[in-house]
Amino acid sequence: MNWTKAERYRSLRDVSALEMEVLRTKTAASPWRFGYHIQPPTGLLNDPNGFAYYDGEYHLFYQWFPLGPVHGLKHWYHVSSTDLVNWTDRGVALVPETMEDSHGAYSGSGFVVDDTLHVMYTGNHRTDDWTRHASQIIGVLRDGVIERRNVAIPSVPAGYTEHFRDPKVWEEDGLYYAIVGAQRTDETGCVVLYRSTDLNEWTFLGEVKTELERFGYMWECPDVFELNGKHVLIFSPQGIEPDGHRYHNIYQSGYVTGTLDLETLVFTHESFEELDFGFDFYAPQTTEHDGRRILVGWMGLPEIEYPTDRYGWAHALTLPRELSLEDGVLKQRPVPEMKQLQTNQFADESGTHIEMISPERYELKLSTSGEDFELELLKTEEESLVIRYEKDTRELTIDRTNAGEPFATEFGTTRTKVIEVTSLHLFVDSSSVECFVNDGDAVATLRVFPSDDEKRIRYVGADATLVGWKYE
User: Fold this and answer.
1) Which residues partner with 294 through β-bridges?
2) Per residue in 267-302, pLDDT tens?
3) Which residues, other chains included, contact 13 with Cβ-Cβ below 8 Å and sequence gap of 6+?
């Protein structure tokens, strides 16, 4: 379908119940709907937004274009959970309908003030000649709907373009800070910082000074927090060229660790590291509760056609991951709450050659001796997702060349990480695989679109153990 500008910028307010029902029916007919991931009821899901713990629940919103698998007028959709596993559908929470967000309620963050969940998000406005204007808006959640409180940052400071978005707010020493993704007028990416005492007046402090002066043309979705006495800055730089095994997706997501001085704005940091070496991961956001830092990412990428598009929907969110900083490495582990789904064990095998019928959705743990191996998932006569490890080169490669319906092949069909491998922890859903390496040393997230044939799991290599649980 060739989407016109008018079709892309229709509000949910202008869509009839019958039209939405037709869209839901089309989406439900898709063979690749998820079993235990957050997914849109129709249309396109992208960035996780407003992730916060409030009133006994984790609240999570996501960017949502309801009418199809394209980027159009972005709304915010709302889900909540007490355990990060079972999510309650709260429906649409934010419909763009002011001048400032007339062309989309873009990404933003959540934070609790005076026992009320607040959000700050980017309002996207287009003039008649389609000139973009960005402003940062604060809202509050009341009765399931985000009500606008004030336009906190009405314009872009000198020296930056209107690609100025995705504020992440935190409180420190009685002051509120907002870090914003930005593009300088010379079309290089960076992040900037604001401060406020009352959420009404925001002071532009300036640009965060890093050692990544010319690192892509735009930095999206920044997030800054402390772990184990260090600052962590997560962001998604656009325009990074491939470098060896790194940076092969259309856009990247990663982090630096170090020390951020809020007075001088100097961030003294280590090298930039990718958060995920898979094919389909972008725009992550974190929240903190009860001493735990939890991350959720968009399981997809912009500007790529996915096989689900023809069913009128696209994308999902990753499983929540608990973060820790250990020996300078940002470890990511599936939240332990996922263990409550381990009720139906289908595998507990050891050996050098293991093969079995696999469920459609499952969790699988592979423990090895660190020698060469090959693990095939989603295996049929014609298809398989291959995960292979070569000890000599320490290369772990994920190969989806023949893992079902191909897509995004212009960005390659393999991803490789140099790492010593002793275990894999895999979560397979109807059209996704999340692979945690060792005990959270690395993660690869990818979408796959297999046929509906019976599938098998096959392992060949040094002596290993496979334990698996079927998910309903």
Assistant:
1) 287, 322
2) 999 999 999 999 999 999 999 999 999 999 999 999
3) 95, 97
Residues with Cβ within 8 Å of 108's Cβ and at least 6 positions away in sequence, in order, are 49, 50, 119, 120, 121, 122, 136, 137, 166, 167, 168
Q: How far apart are the first and last CA of the chain?
A: 34
pLDDT above 90: percentage of residues in the chain: 98
Residue 242 has what DSSP assignment? Answer: P
Q: Report how far residue 76's alpha carbon sits from residue 64's, in angstroms, rounded to the nearest whole number.
A: 6
Phi/psi of residue 416, each to 5°? Answer: -130, 140
CA distances from 385 to 150, 215, 350, 379 (A): 49, 33, 21, 7
Residues 105-114: pLDDT tens digits? 999 999 999 9
**CB-CB contact of 83 with 57 (8 Å):** no
The residue behind tokens 């007490």 is 82
pLDDT of residue 74: 98
Q: Is residue 74 within 8 Å of residue 102, measured between CB atoms?
A: no
- Long-range CB contacts (< 8 A, 24+ apart) of 255-260? 255/330, 256/210, 256/212, 256/232, 257/227, 257/230, 257/231, 257/232, 257/233, 257/325, 257/328, 257/330, 258/230, 258/231, 258/233, 259/230, 259/231, 260/208, 260/224, 260/231, 260/233
Give the H or E element holding residue 170.
strand 160-172
CA distance 294 to 290: 10
Question: Across-strand partners of 207?
Answer: 192
Catalytic residue ranges: 47
pTM: 0.97
The tens digit of pLDDT for each residue in 146-205 reads 999 999 999 999 999 999 999 999 999 999 999 999 999 999 999 999 999 999 999 999
